[in-house]
Predict the structure.
Amino acid sequence: MHKRKKILTNWRKILVWVAVILTIAKVWLPESIITPLAEWTQKADSIVRSVQDLLNGKPPVRGKKWAVASKGRYSGNVDSVHDGDTVHIRDKDGHMHKVRLANIDAPEIKQAYGIASRDALKARIEGKYVDVNVVAIDQYQREVGQITLNNADINLWMVQQGYAWHYDSIAKKQQDRLGFGRYQSAQIQARQNRLGLWHNASAIAPWQFRQQQKNR
């Protein structure tokens, strides 16, 4: 039994590294190659995690109890990563929260760097215990929150790595002057160093991409 758990743990580590490598390879390889590999990695990781939970004596999750979205602070485990700025977090009472990362906007999944952005966030926090500060509730009843992992600002980290824009039009209403300036500086640095999505000098912001899709 112990040997099986060790094998599964090693497999999860391998899959995380594969996700990281695919994220880096996005710079050189076309989306048509990266997308199927990334989706396979995600499915394989989900299967390994489920088997690992069974061996650890954790019952399979048959349903999700969703918490009522509200402002405030709580901690929990990142259950899944939907895209580069939306995650599901299970709190200590077993309730699930759908959290939209505050003050940033990541590329849509169908947009360039959308999958790379999701996989970067997934490799960074999925399965990890994080702290959440919910600063607002959006029109879709999602919690809009600041996520920290071991005191590291994950929202800011996504901007620093070039996997999300600073959503400045919204952030002006939510961030203080110091926080706003920190995120702006992070975006300028990422753009100057051509990190992540900034490898494309003419990268389209997600809010512009969504508007283009509506106009079609």
Summary: The domain at 64-206 is CATH 2.40.50.90 (OB fold (Dihydrolipoamide Acetyltransferase, E2P)). The chain is about 45% helix and 25% strand. The first strand starts at residue 65 and ends at 66. Helices lie at 2-25, 31-55, 114-125, 154-160, 168-174, 177-192, 206-215.
